[in-house]
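In response to a reviewer's request, we include the raw inputs and outputs for one of the modeled complexes. The two entities were modeled together in a single run.
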Amino acid sequence: MPKQTVPILKQEEKVFQNLEGQDDWSLAGYKKRGGYKGLKKLLTTDRIKHIEKMKESALRGRGGAGFPTGMKWSFMPDPAKTGKPSYLVCNADEGEPGTCKDRDILRYDPHTLVEGMIIGCYTLAAKTGYIYVRGEYYDESSRLQQAINEAYEAGFLGKNIQGTGVDVDIHVHLGAGAYICGEETALLESLEGKKGQPRLKPPFPAGYGLYGCPTTINNVETIAQVPPILKNKLEWWTQHGRPNNHGTKIFSISGSVNRPINVEAPMSIPLKELIETYAEGVIGGWKNLQAVIPGGSSTPMLNKGEAGKVLMDFDGLREYGTGLGTAAVIVMNQDVDVLRVMTRISAFYKHESCGQCTPCREGVGWVYTLMKRLSNGEGTVEELEQLQKLTKKIEGHTICAFADGAMWPVQGTLRCFKDEFERRIEAKEEVA
Amino acid sequence: MTNLTLTIISKQGEVEVIVPQGATVMDAIKAAEQQVPHFCYHKRLSIAGNCRMCLVEVEGAPKPVASCHWPANDGMRVNLDSETTINARKGTMELLLANHPLDCPICDQGGECELQDQAVAFGSDRSQFQEMKRAVDDKEIGAKIKTVMTRCIHCMRCVRFATEIAGVEEFGATGRGVDTQVGTYVEEALQSELAGNMIDLCPVGALTNKPYAFTARPWELQHTDSIDVMDGVGTHIRVDHRAGKVMRIVPRECDAINEEWMSDTARFSWDALSTNRLTTPMVRKNGKLTACGWPEAFKKIEQSLKKVGRDKIAGLAGDLHCAEDYYAFNAFMKETLKTDNVDARGDGACVDSTNHAAYIMHTPLADIEKADAVLLIGTNPRHEAPLLNVRLRCLVQSGIPIAMVGEEVDLTYKYKLLGDNPQVLEDIANSKNSFGKILQKAEKPLIILGSNVLTRPDAKAVLFSAASLAEGIGAVTENWRGFNVLQRMAGRVAALDMAVHPVAGGLETKGILKALSENKLDVLFQYGDIEVPCEMLQSTATKIYIGIHLTEQAQTADVMLPAAAYTEKNGLWTNIEGRVQEAKAAVQPPLQAKEDWKIFRALSAELGKPLPFNNQAQLRQAIVDICAIYNEPNMLVQPEWERPGKAGKMKDTPFTLPVTVENYYQTNEILRASNTMVACQAEILEKRKVEEAA
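The model returned the following structure tokens for the whole complex.
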């Protein structure tokens, strides 16, 4: 039995009250926790007001990029003017190494997402929503489908929801196991039945998305957070976190911690407090810490000193040259061969590059071979410089952000552990 | 539409350019007459933006943008020579070359390779790549294209061409990341009749011309502009030759006709120009064809014509000749030999020179895209005129309705099949057929009648009915001409313009063949192969064959005179639109072979009645005198409308197709002499067999 979470957030302050699966996931349980209450009122309120409130809440996308959700929603054109249907697509292709927050939402609290989709579709004037679930989450997608079926039966989905005249249909689609399909336009391609490769932007999905129609793509957590934000007073949300980083967030803490955990905590919480309060500290104590990847494998790592000071929000991590990403905290203590971990992460990106554009296709594999060689001490100190330059030839030159995400961890490693690379290279040279 | 003003900054300074709304940054750079390196971008394909070679710095943008797809904005400042731009370019080039084998010395693309050129112009002079290079298995994709897939830079031009232009989804990418491979999924011969264009599109040596492999370097070749004669489209081609031998044929750009594509028959049949040629006159001695000189051959002809009545002489001409040659042949038969038994319509088509409107396309090829409804009658444009089909496909992709009356064939796009015989035309005309209403409503309807329709017994009635339908639906107005007869053979329009048919009651093809079978003729002049079975040309008559290949039909002759192929003479060719185009001689005719008109001129002098022209200029003047449009090559003149055909009863026998996928590569004597084309045909038939067995 998992131990009880330290109750920093009161139950009513949480968006995901059943994140640990201690309670009933089904419609009955969700309703008992207050779900679907006030839905009818939200579906009869002016859409513009919803978007305004989303903007005021300063909710930033939970999928990694942290784009303000209210602003994203305001880009959607009026279907009456375009003559095309609008779509809301939920990105549940959770593939970022270290991240498992959406999974627990799907299996323990799926109705938070369903309710979010209903309100999201209404707000964006979309009659159809798609939830693209990664293929590996087969059981989770089944659970989600059951929740959707319950919602249909209860009249929360389908035609004329609760007599409000709002129509919303939701379809669940399973991916086939490509990380790149988590990139929003690759996801749309995959959803359309094509090879999952990112599209050129512009045009952006808000203008030309799924089947060429205006589309908004949001992360599971983002969509699920919408109903409580709109239902509660603004202060309920903004009491947590610093300005522009408000609210709560699920952190997935893994690696060298005493208790790996998925936990909803307030934004802007200090990283050290997060690890020590919820994950029962680093194995061997804080002094045994070596490095922390703060937001999933794409974000550059922090060394021990930085990890002790940083606040876990978008702006706080940016100050240290990294990012909140998906808030998947990967902790590495002194027992970990960091260079080996980072080489393995490079191997992951080599394997997952879609191969569409040149720098990523040719470069990510090259970076991996260099990482493999240099982390074993095979190479020269000059090659470290070359590796750094190579990442700069790839970063920012590609169609999508995948290659950026593949280069940042390498740059982070070179920043924090260049001396370790040099030590290994010199040790090899001495043996020779 | 508003215009946008951009500033293009380069080493030469700042230039302001004005581009229309919707233009890309690359358009603006080109408007400033500056270069931007690129591989995946191609103006006739969709934008892929995947090579990342065209990255440029736009001031204010956080990172360099791919100019091929980035929309131009008013006031944008594009920096072509900034550090950001140069670093991005050099970085991309280094990455492109990282896994490229750099085997230029043994690569056929060397000298005309975009990667080579751009690496020199925009790349770095060294690479830091010290790892193992990727190696990719080559793919066996048939007789046309040789692959060295390790050289592939994944620009996907070939994939986009196959999908978007050729309409056959044969090419695609499998695998991902560094393991991405371009190929045919299951390794098999390409089925497209336009596959060769991928060779031109491939910016590197991954897809190269298989029959041309290792035969020449581009800088050794001399280039001559010419016109293709494998179909009636009149594709602009460039004949590349070295030391008097044609080495390869590539397309020239011509927006009005072929854009920059060409069919595979045009591209890959050049080996026939030096295979199985007639190179010396021959006469039959003791039953055996024996090489001889021109005087001896002429003498033999003179002898065979002695004391022969002019109604016992006949002439048949094939379909691969230019206007001058048709004129000279016609004049030779009618003026020197005084016979009217002459016909160049080997298939027995019912049209003649009296009505120009009856045998050409009235819609210029470039205007096809303006049509808003299309009706095909008894034609297979995909194999009769592949480049016309490309334009039709483009039209259909944009949502224009298209229907067919005739045999069901794969045209690479969906169409509505209305029926297989001419009586459906009446239903359409009466709007009994739902497509009739669509045509009625259309502002610019297009009707395309296959040339084989003209050979039916009820051809005149069908022609009349189709023309009446065209008039009825507004396809023949002052602003729009949508009535078209599609000729599938290169020489036919010129032959009809030159009136190579009886004009004073002489025998037509059918009559000549009948007289031959009844041994009623004494002398037959056969000018090139006729599209009839060889047995039908056998008789007791003395047969004089003038042609370029030692074909089956040539071998039955008593005298053979070697003529010049289309690459060996200056000639005027008239395409399906009735457009006269000049082709230049690239090489000399082989050995003793002569230009065709010179043969007829010399023979007429030998027979004592010389034709009234002594050089090509005089010959062309004579042609202009009977057909004024030949005075201005490349001009398109809309013909006077005169309803062709004759009212009559149409039968319900189905339309048939002379050219289908089963014989596409073997439709004339040049193609039949080409080893490459024979191999291509065998591949198609093999595939059919496998499909039928499955």
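As requested, we also summarize the result in words. Chain B touches chain A through 36 residues (CB under 8 Å). The first strand of chain B starts at residue 3 and ends at 10.
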